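=== RUN LOG ===
request id: a7f3
mode: sequence -> structure
chains: 1
length: 419
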Amino acid sequence: MKALKTTLRTTLRGPARILAVGQLISKTGDGAYYVTSALFFTQVVGLSPAELGLGLTIAWSVALAVGVPLGHLTDRLGPRETAVFFFCCAALAAGSYVFVRFFPLFVLSATVYAIGQRSGSAAQQALLAGVVQKEKITQVRAFLQAASNAGLALGAALGGVVLLFDTREAYLAAFALNAVFFLAAAVVLARVPTVVATPPGAESGKPRSVLKDHPYVAVSVLNLILVLHGPLIDVALPLWIVGHTEAPKWVLAAMFVLNTLAVVAFQVRVARGVTDLTSAGRYVVRGGVVLGLSCVIFAFSGSGGSMWSAALLLLAAAAVQTVGEMMQSAGTWELSFGLTPDGRHGQYQAFFGSGHTVAELIGPLVLTGLLVYWGPPGWILLGALFVGASFLMVPAAKWGERRLNAGNAAAQASPSGAE
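=== RESULT ===
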C-alpha cells in the first residue's frame, strides 16, 4: 500500500492527474447511460428492440468510419482542443435524448453521441502522449483505466437508482446528468497544457496514413481479437448462464462487480511490469494465455452439477479473465503508443481504438454463435484464438519497431531532419 501511495504521488500529478479526473467524470455519466438507455428507448420512447439495435449499429458504424479522419484532424488542430470539442458534442447529444420521440431522431442523436465519445477518447489518448513522459505513459494509462472503471461503477449505481424509480422523469434526469458530466469533463480537460499541433508536411520519412503502416495495422487487428473479451459479459455470458449452466442469474452481476473492482484495485500494479516494447510483448502473451485458460474454465461451467458449483466455476473464470484482461491491456497500451510516430497520436490512437468499436459491433453476433449455439467447443476455440493472437503480437510488434526506427533514421538523415 505504501508503494502504491508513493507511485500515486510521483506519477499521477500535474496533467496526468487532470486527465484521470476527466476520465472519472466522463465515465460516471457513461455508466448511468449504459444502465438506463435500453429501457428508456424501448419502454418510454417506444422504439422496438430491433430499432434500438439497428440505430446503435448505424451510430457506431458511422463513428468507426470517421474515426481515422477525425484523428488526423486531431493531430492538425491539437488534441486538447479537439478533445474538449468532441466531449461537448457528446454532451449535446446526451442532452438531445430528452427530445427523442422518433427513430430517425434517435439515430441522429446516437450518431453524434458515438462520434463525440469515440473521437473524444482518441483525442484524450493523443493528449496523454503529448503531456506525459514516454516512459510513464503505460503507468498513467493504467491509472486512467482504473479511473474509468471506478466512474462506470459509480455511474451504474446512479443508474440503479433511476431504475428503482422507473419513471420518465428519472430517465430524463439520467440523460441530463450524463450531459452535465461530459461538459464538466470538457472543462477539466481544458486545464491540461496545450500540445503543439503537427503542421502539414512534418511527417517526412514516415507513413502519411496509419493504413499504410502495415505493422501497426497488424498489431491493431490482433488486438481486436484480444478485446473480444469485452462483449462477453454484456451479451454472451447472460445467454450462456441461462441456457447452459445451473447457476443463478445473479451471478452475472457478481461477475461484473468482481471485474470492475479488480481493475480499479490492481490495474496499476499489473502495469508496473511493462516498461518497454519487449516487456509489453511478454505481457500480451501472458495475458492471452490467461484469457485462454479462463475460456476453458467457462466451458466446464456448463458441464452440469449443482447451482453452486456452476456459480463458483463462473466466478473463478471471471477472476482469471480479469487477470488476463489487465495484462493484455497493459501490454497493448505500451505497443499502441510506442509504435506511433511522433506527432501522429491522434490518427494512430483513433485507428487502434477502432478495434474496440469493431469488437462491440461484431462481438455479440460472433460470440453468441460461437458460445451459445456451439457450447463448450466454442469456448475452447475462443481460447485458442486469444492464445494465437497474443503469440502473433510479438513478431508484429518487432516488425513495427523496425519500421518505426527506419522511419526515424530516414527523417534524421533528410535535410529537414538535419535542421
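=== NOTES ===
Residues 1-8 have pLDDT under 50 and may be disordered.
The CA atoms of residues 47 and 103 lie 7 Å apart.
=== END ===
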